[in-house]
């Protein structure tokens, strides 16, 4: 037989599409023609596959070989097609039974010695194969644990091309990989480590309960980074669906930690302030990769020294934070990644960043205003909670010798508040107070008018925008959920307004 076909998967973001690999052999000058919008890596796969086939002990057919990747209109990127190409070529050459790989989904990169190397994006690729009706996939042995996370599919791990050839020819069988027990989640920093800073601890608890964005300001050593790093430990462990979403993003990004195929804890990303737009949101000149915001999906994106980030880079977060997803367009296509993360910003109040606070500050009011103006108003308007942390005094440090409340106790209150909110919002397909659109907030879950009096006066005086008033109401609902109240009262609105209007003194 001179025609053979196998299947593989192409990825655009975390969405997979089935790719049919067809190989035709005909008389003519020996050579290989590869069609179907391959990128440079896929075009180079011909040389990798040829060397792997020869070094496995098989012969490379000296005929004209045409390889088609269908659908032809979809760009093909990455080295994950190598294994499918090799199987199709060997089947078309008669080395393997003609129909041995027909209907089989193959993923993996080939080394020149015939070894099958791990690739990125195996989890979303296997999910796409299952959704397309395939029940068996062959993956690199290094990706077997990741692929086995998907239910309803037989995962066959291959260490070498020779193993696959022996399996398809019937000389030996690849043993299906069974999903093993998941390792225990790594321990996270405890909120009990934070000395003092009652306002900061309260803000972190409210942010965790409602999914609100948070802005922490204060001098060095006040505990901004400590509080931000402890926020993921207050969030509930991810359910299986959410964990698969997060793991798929990290699989595409190539950031899955060794020995942890499933990410069950909310992720925490903290890029350096020199990060580019592509590093923060996503991009790349070839394969589009998720940025830090996408890798923080269902977790926390922490931007320390926020005013040091380029203003244009920070402003790219505005639309993704509102939509919960980011679409990155290129001439060759577009990729969409989910990015429903909690944003936590941290900043010093002024350029001198005196650890002693305002008393030792050497900056003029103009310098302070210029420093704070590096963060745009539209970005700050999307931040629900703003807290100024004072320098830790000796009295606060001595008071911290008594054990503060640990993360476990705070996380229990957060979980209870989230359950209350989910029960109230579930009929609208929502789970967190921060997700409630302004229209639904006013129509279905209005805050009592008497309780809103203080916030309405702030709106009249220009201290709040209409969007800001909606955000105050969302935070008030979170405070009510934490306090076990059926609706927010005036104290909840006052506390929410106080967290909204705090600013570093100029």
Automatic annotation (TrEMBL):
Superkingdom in the source lineage: Bacteria
The species this protein was found in: Geodermatophilus tzadiensis
Family: Belongs to the Mg-chelatase subunits D/I family. ComM subfamily.
Coiled coil: none
Ranges where the AAA+ ATPase domain occurs: 210-393
Annotated InterPro entries: AAA+_ATPase (IPR003593), CHLI-like (IPR045006), Mg_chelat-rel (IPR004482), Mg_chelat-rel_C (IPR025158), Mg_chelatse_chII-like_cat_dom (IPR000523), P-loop_NTPase (IPR027417), Ribosomal_Su5_D2-typ_SF (IPR020568), Ribsml_uS5_D2-typ_fold_subgr (IPR014721)
Protein name as catalogued: Magnesium chelatase family protein
Any GO MF annotation of the entry: ATP binding
């Amino acid at each position: 037989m001179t025609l053979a076909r196998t299947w593989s998967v192409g990825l655009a973001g975390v969405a997979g599409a089935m790719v049919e690999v067809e190989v035709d052999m005909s008389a003519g000058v020996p050579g290989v023609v590869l069609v179907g919008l391959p990128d440079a890596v896929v075009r180079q796969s011909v040389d990798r596959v040829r060397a792997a086939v020869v070094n496995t002990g098989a012969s490379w057919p000296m005929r004209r070989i045409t390889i088609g990747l269908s659908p032809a209109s979809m760009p093909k990127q990455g080295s994950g097609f190598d294994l499918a190409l090799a199987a199709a070529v060997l089947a078309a050459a008669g080395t393997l039974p003609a129909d041995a790989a027909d209907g089989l989904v193959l993923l993996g990169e080939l080394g020149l010695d015939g070894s099958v190397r791990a690739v990125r994006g195996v989890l979303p690729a296997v999910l796409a194969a299952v959704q397309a009706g395939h029940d068996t996939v062959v993956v690199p042995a290094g990706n077997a644990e990741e692929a086995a996370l998907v239910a309803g599919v037989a995962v066959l791990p291959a260490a070498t091309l020779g193993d696959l050839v022996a399996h398809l020819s019937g000389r030996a069988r690849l043993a299906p990989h069974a999903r093993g027990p998941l390792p225990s989640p790594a321990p996270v920093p405890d909120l009990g480590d934070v000395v003092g800073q009652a306002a900061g601890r309260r803000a972190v608890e409210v942010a965790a309960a409602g999914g609100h964005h948070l802005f922490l300001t204060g001098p060095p050593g006040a505990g901004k980074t400590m509080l931000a790093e402890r926020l993921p430990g207050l969030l509930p462990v991810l359910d299986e669906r959410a964990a698969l979403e997060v793991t798929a993003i990290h699989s595409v990004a190539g950031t899955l930690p060794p020995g942890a195929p499933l990410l069950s804890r909310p992720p925490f990303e903290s890029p350096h302030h020199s990060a580019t737009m592509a590093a923060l949101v996503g991009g790349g000149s070839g394969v589009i990769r998720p940025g830090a915001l996408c890798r923080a999906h269902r977790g926390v994106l922490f931007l320390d020294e926020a005013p040091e980030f380029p203003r244009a880079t920070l402003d790219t977060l505005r639309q993704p934070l509102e939509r919960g997803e980011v679409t990155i367009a290129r001439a060759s296509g577009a990729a969409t990644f989910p990015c429903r993360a909690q944003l936590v910003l941290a900043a010093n109040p002024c350029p001198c960043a005196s650890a002693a606070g305002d008393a030792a500050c050497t900056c003029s009011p103009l310098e302070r205003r210029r420093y704070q103006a590096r963060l745009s108003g539209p970005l700050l308007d999307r931040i629900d909670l703003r807290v100024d942390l004072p320098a830790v005094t000796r009295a606060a440090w001595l008071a911290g010798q008594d054990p503060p409340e640990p993360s476990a106790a705070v996380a229990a209150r957060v979980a209870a508040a989230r359950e209350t909110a989910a029960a109230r919002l579930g009929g609208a397909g929502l789970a967190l107070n921060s997700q409630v659109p302004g229209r639904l907030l006013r129509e279905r879950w209005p805050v009592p008018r008497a309780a809103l009096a203080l916030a309405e006066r702030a709106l009249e005086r220009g201290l709040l925008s209409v969007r800001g008033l909606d955000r105050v109401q969302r935070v008030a609902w979170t405070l009510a959920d934490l306090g076990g109240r059926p609706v927010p009262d005036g104290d909840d609105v006052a506390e929410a307004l106080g967290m909204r209007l705090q600013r570093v003194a100029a």
